[in-house]
Amino acid sequence: MGTYLIRRILFAIPTLLVISLIIFAILDLAPGDPAGQLPLTLPAEMKEAIREALGVNDPFLIKWLKWVQLMFINEPLHAIESIFNVCFGDCEARHRIISWSSRAPAIDIIYQRLPQTMWVLGLAFVFGTLIAIPVGIISAYKQYSVFDNVGTFVTMIGYSLPTFFTGLLAIIVFSVWLRWFPSFYDTTLVVNSWDTFVLQVKQMIMPVAVLTLFNTAVLSRFTRASVLDNLNEDYVRTARSKGLGERKVVLTHVMRNSMIPVVTLIALSIPGIFAGAIITEQIFRINGIGALLITAIGQGDVPMVQTLTFIFAVLIVLFNLIADVTYGILDPRIRYD
Amino acid sequence: MKRTRLLAFLAVFALVVAACSPSTEEGSTTTAGGGEGSTTTAASPGTTQAPSGGEAGSGGELLILQWQAPSVANGLLSSGTKDFLASSLVLEPLIEVAPDGSLVATGLAEEVPTIDNGGVAEDFSSITYKLKPDVLWSDGTPFTADDVLFTWEYCSDELTGCAADLSKIESVDVIDDLTVRFNFTEPQSYPYGAGFVSYGSPVVQRAQFQDCVGEQASSCTEQNFQPIGTGPYMVTELKPEDTVTYAMNPNYRGIADGKPFFGTVTIKGGGDAESSARSVLEIGEADYGWNLQVAPEILLPMEAAGNGTIVTSFTANVEHIELNQTDPKGDPPSEFPSQHPVLYQNGDFAKALSLAIDRDALVTVGYGPTGTPTCTFWPVGDQATDANDWCKTRDVDQANQILDDLGYMDTDGDGVREAPGFGPLVFDYVTSTNAVRQSNQDIIKSNWEEIGVVANMSNQDASLFFDGTSASDFSIWKFFTDMEMFTNGATLPDAAGYLHGFNTSEITSAALGWPANNNIVRFSDPEFDQISDEALTLSPTDPMYTDLVKQMQEIIVNKGAIIPLIHRGNVSAISNTIQGFGDPNGWDSEYWNIEDWTRSG
Predict the structure, then answer these.
(1) pLDDT of residue B42
(2) Which of A310, B18, B227, B469 has its CB surrounded by the most CB atoms within 10 Å?
(3) pLDDT tens column, B432-452
(4) B120, B191 Cβ separation under 8 angstroms
(5) Helix or strand or coil: residue B247?
(6) Record: contact A188-B245, CB cut-off 8 A
(7) How high is the pLDDT of residue B460?
């Protein structure tokens, strides 16, 4: 396993470099103007000067190499420095990747946005998982019962209704008619008392519920299918004939085997949390990572888009690795070397 | 099983740790959740001092929704109107523009310089501003003319990437602490267009920004996010593309009069125009919603809830169709001085097209109270001409008659007229992707079918259509089609300067790399050139000025360069609990008088 890990990690580095080059090339070829939202009446030379100042017109390979140096060397150095409060070399003047629309370091903006994305989407993911697994197991165990049919119906609805519909419906019902919850997410809210905690819960309920419905739907169907597969296996019959109680048969033996593909699926979905649920973020004005990516694309803010997509690529590669390793841990039949 | 539980627990733990990671906010503002009406909590951060006047800052919080969220608070590095607005609460220009288009000295200048009071040189070569005395920056230091000089230096450095155009100023003379003179590169009959007028051109403090000139501009994040200003508020925190929070400026000159009323302001971004409208009008959880580009049938019923009012400000924004004077099928395409076989200076044809358009339907379907039909390109106050108001009355018969007289007959009976030497009157008609624009295109297309003209409608994404680098072939400056439709507007009420955009000297072309010049339609007429150049030598108060401005408007319509359609206003919504708003301001910042806003009850 050790050599397998090291080999995978070493492979990851050229993979990521190639990914960054492809992302860079696509963005460079795409039309888009960071000075495009300035008033039309601004003279052309002014807008050109602004573009020059941002570095839009440098040759492609130079831009990529500069970015690689910033992303692979300067940014990790800066991160280490700020966590441990040290200073390597000339830390004051070190260049960082600068967003073109806000002229601030891109990584800082992303980091600033992480809390709301993590809070809302992370919670939705956790709740979705916690609800989906028991529901899936029970649905499979009591196949075709009332519970199973109702569960199937609800998950089908949750799966088919798009989040912009359920989100909007939730706003109309709970914000406009009932006035129970605010219709948008206040990111400046600092939780330091019971009242602010209640406010935080109130503003999170609707987006979390909308997303949980969707996550639960997907995961519970998958869990149900996986458990169904395993319930018909010979070892289950053996366990029952040995006299084990149903509870032990299902919760110890069947579940452990069914969870292998489910855990793999969960691990592979985690990068999706960071990408954010773009539509839900837009509807509830959560202003998380997903919304950041969309606005950056619309504004032609290339460094921000590159940094974000590269971070997603890193996460996907990383969690692919974690999923593979978890698979190996859970299933003793799998051995890597 | 145990491992799954362990994994789940670890996941929750990791998320909790991540969510509780340190964030950069210093102050905290709490808003009462749910639409319970106006909020009265005020939590001022510890960095401000209590005001000396009893009333200033006692009004609690003001919540503004700007669905296009600000990215910086330093207006000079702005990437769009949203940033100019965020900056306008903190930084001030010398002169501001009132809602009716007049210039007022509510900024840092003591009075508006004119030729009569000696502020503007008789030969338009310079302008001298007297500054308000005893004005302090928010850090307590005095504001002087030296800061104005520094702002010009900051913007003159090309590497800064400054969004304010100060290029017409050759040099700045600091005559004394309260007097500054701008010397122009060439005589400016409208000297207020040279800079420091309106929210796009504020003054910054030398002490704060002196290390931020040129290349350093991008690395001065703290200065760009929290500029020190003379305005009623200071930035407590800026989260780019998300939220900006402000607290009252304790050194603001209006404190003694109890201004500003509100102690804190929050500009919240994200979402879209419709949800902003809903928050202000239907739910009543916010006080102001900016730029509500929403279809009228959705927007108007929201006002019935009684929480807010829709306010529209009209400036010079005119939605119009440009008729390509050059040949888009030529080689190279749309290159001056090629001539379009049908549209080149074809005033009669343009008139027929204009008469056939049902402008009232365009307004009803797309704009509601935010637009009115217009027949001229500069529908601003007294300077608008009414000579072409025939266009407001739809007359298909007259249009058909004009086309018959031009000899464009339908020889093969397919319902489409042909022009000799050109063929069927089929034109490519493009605009940006936008529900309102597409529905207007539909109406115009069917209007023109009644007179035997066919328009091939298409639309392009706004980021390509309005891309000033013209990286794609779809930009309005390349104009590789016969007709384009979009809205143009002026940042200042400078009629001669704006209309000069149709002068031959401002034509954009491939040879120049398609700079984002003003003469997109490639109009070239010696009579117009002469009039537009002459208008630039006159002061707006000259009696001949308005005459020439009207003539220019008439020529561009009569000689078939453009078809004006709708005079569009900027729409916003304001809570009914806010007083002191006055008229909505389309020329300057919509928050230009925010220090006068109060809350009733």
Answers:
(1) 35
(2) B227
(3) 988 888 989 999 999 999 999
(4) yes
(5) strand
(6) yes
(7) 92
Interface of A with B in 50-79 (CB under 8 A): 50-54, 56
- Interchain CB contacts (distance < 8 Å): A and B: 250
What pTM, to 2 d.p., does this model score?
A: 0.79
- Asked if the model's pLDDT at residue A145 lies above 80, the reply is yes
8 Å CB contact of B468 and A33? yes
Average pLDDT over residues B389-416: 91
Residue B33 has pLDDT above 50, yes or no: no
Q: Convert the pLDDT of each residue in B453-468 to its tens digit.
A: 999 999 998 878 887 7
Structural tokens at position B335: 């290159």
Nearest to B225 by CA among B295, B557, B212: B212
Provide the sign of the torsion angle of the four alpha carbons B515, B518, B521, B526, taken in this order: negative
Task: Give A 257-296 residues with CB within 8 A of chain B.
Answer: 259, 263, 281-287, 291-292, 295
Tokens 């117009």 correspond to what residue?
A: B528
Mean pLDDT of chain A: 84
Q: Do B240 and A46 touch (CB under 8 A)?
A: no
| DSSP code, position A95 | -
What element of type H or E holds B368? none
Q: What is the dihedral of CA A262, A267, A271, A277, to 10 degrees?
A: 30
Dist CA B524 CA B503 (whole Å): 7
Q: What is the pLDDT of residues B286-334, one digit of tens each?
A: 999 998 888 888 888 999 888 999 999 999 999 999 999 999 998 888 8
Q: Where are the alpha helices (DSSP H) in chain A?
A: 2-29, 44-54, 60-69, 75-84, 106-117, 123-141, 146-160, 163-170, 194-231, 234-241, 246-248, 255-275, 278-284, 289-299, 302-330
* Residues B421, B424, B430, B434, Cα dihedral to 10°: 160
Report the SS3 class of residue B101. coil
Indicate the residue type of B242. D
